[in-house]
Here is the input.
Amino acid sequence: MAVVGPARLCWLSIRRLPAPRRELVRSGDPDQPLPVVRVPRALQRRQELRQRRRQSSPQPALVRPGPLLLSARRPELNQPARLTLSRWESAPLASRGWKSRRARRDYFSIERAQHEAPALRKLAAARDTFADLGLEPRLLAALQQAAPDVVRPTTVQASTIPPLLRGRHVLCAAETGSGKTLSYFLPLLQRLLGRPNLDAGRVPAPRGLVLVPSRELAQQVRAVGQPLGSSLGLQVRELGGGHGLSRIMLQLSRRLPTDVLVATPGALWKALKWQLLSLDQLSFLVLDEADTLLDESFLELVEFILGKSHIAESTADLEDAFNPKAQLVLVGATFPEGVSQLLNKVASPDSLTTITSSKLHCIMPHVRQTFMRLKGVEKVTELVQLLKQRDKGPSGSVLVFCNSSSTVNWLGYILDDHKIQHLRLQGQMPASMRAGIFQGFQKGSQNILLCTDIASRGLDSTRVDLVVNYDFPLTLQDYIHRAGRVGRVGSEIPGTVVSFVTHPWDVSLVQKIELAARRRRSLPGLSSSVSEPLPQRTIVQPSSV
Here is the structure.
């Protein structure tokens, strides 16, 4: 066995050292201590790479003192109200990474940018009154008697009423809660006042027809029109479905005078099919919530009804009182892409005077909207805690939206167990149970309503100050309608929307909403041929009507 001497051992130790240390021993001072490597070179390279990526990524907006447009749990993702991002400028999203489970309990809010609704924003500077719009004194007196709180027209009403009084076909696309019902009802009643009632047939023949997608909305529209009509000697009646043909026959067999009929497509289709009703005397036809009525679920029924109506082709067709033709009005809060092709089945686009609001398809600037990333099992606890906190003080009403009727029923049992009083409204209920539920909620019989999207379209909810999306809506269009239940014209309570975000497809919609809010632009996929806003008091002149 060979013996290794001290010099040999020293040389072997030097060879095992890293290259920098070996070089130092060969050329440097033997008495100088060797440097200690505390961070491995591989880790240093990774840190340098991360630093370069961080510098190249978009920097978050610096938060300065002042109001915020968007506030997040992580303050570095806040966006000041004074900051506006361009269309192509990338934005650091607070919802980025929400598809990972690690993001649970994260949240952000789109803050309230103004206090009043957009429909009332410019009323302080405007001088228009209902009399300036061309309404007759007796109609103004009826309006004052039926709705004494309505003193001045909203911006939508000021733009819509004059062309309707001139006999134009009108498409009115404006945000929810902007006063669209009075926009068409007042001109409708004034047109009927100057025309004789020629109904002498064996079946009722209304002179005005308002078509709506749900029984609840039919009840509401009739409640708006009936006080106005009674003061003018005109009868406004309702024809709702869900009761079967025998109930429709009973309603129409009474031969009560009907000047304006508010109906749902299914009930009206049955009445026309069995020749219980005639549309030969029609002078005014309104499709309220037109985007819903032109959807696949109603389109076939609506086409049948339009085939039984005589739509005027020009303004001159409306002048013959003894051979009436119908003036057409399309009203809605959302007109997504693809609606233009459906409108061609109703009327020629060139014959429509298109009126849109500046905030169409935009996030409402006067409503605070909060998004919470939760696991599915956490939603019930969060909702119960939220509702119990509201019980401790005076507050407005709450709408809790679910995506299915079964979820409404199941969640109702949970609230019953927690002694939280509420009402439920969903489409699978029998008509006898649904009747009056929303009206009772509007009058304050209960402050909490569990519902499906049946309560999101057109229904007036000025008492509601909180909307909870227990299930996040399936489309951006549905989100706009749900959020539109708060912050309406006539509401004295500031509105808030709270949304529970659970699934990856929910996160995708939330990111689109957040990006649109940061850039102050309309929501993607909802821009259509009616998306270009008109000047405040300028009306597009149509080619023929």
In short: DSSP finds 18 helices and 16 strands in the chain.
